[in-house]
Amino acid sequence: MPFINWNETLDLGIAIxxxxxxxxxxAVNDLHLRAKDAADTAELKGHMKGLLASxxxxxxxxxxxxxxxxxxxxxxxxxxxxxLENQLTDLIDKLSRDQLPFxxxxxxxxxxxxxxxxxxSDLVYTLWMRNHGFIHPATKDLIPRAKR
Length: 148
Ligand SMILES: [Fe+2]
Ligand SMILES: [Fe+2]
What we know:
Layout: H1 15-37, H2 41-69, H3 74-96, H4 104-131
Helix pairs in contact: 1-2, 1-4, 2-3, 3-4
The structure holds fe (ii) ion (2 copies).
One fe (ii) ion is lined by residues 21, 58, 62, 118, 122.
C-alpha cells in the first residue's frame, strides 16, 4: 500500500484542487520510496525542498481562489498554510545541519498534516464554494464569480 493511500473518498470535488492534492500525495509517496535507498542527506534535503515548493504553489492556488471568491475565512486558512511552510522550512534546516536524522518521522509529519488539513479546513472552504454556487456540478470546474 502506498504511504499516502489517496483515493476518491479524499477528493473534495473541485477538479483543479483534487488534481493538486493527488500530485502532492504522489510526490510524498515518491519521496518515501526514495528515502529508503538515498544514502546522503543532501539528496533528501533537495527532495524536501522540492516538496516544499510544490506545496507552496498549491497554497498559492487556494489563496488566489479565496481572494477571487471572497472566502470569509481566508485569513485563518492562510495562517495554517504559513505555519506548515515554517515548520517544513525548519525541518529542512535541521536536516541540512545534521541535527535531525531523515527518518519516516519527517514524512509522517507531512502526511498527517496534509490529510488532516485536506479533510478539515480544505473541506470547509469547498463546502462554502459549493453552497455559493461556485462549483460546476458536472465538470467540477470553478465558475467565475461574475458569471454565477
Ligand atoms: Fe489543499
Ligand atoms: Fe489549504
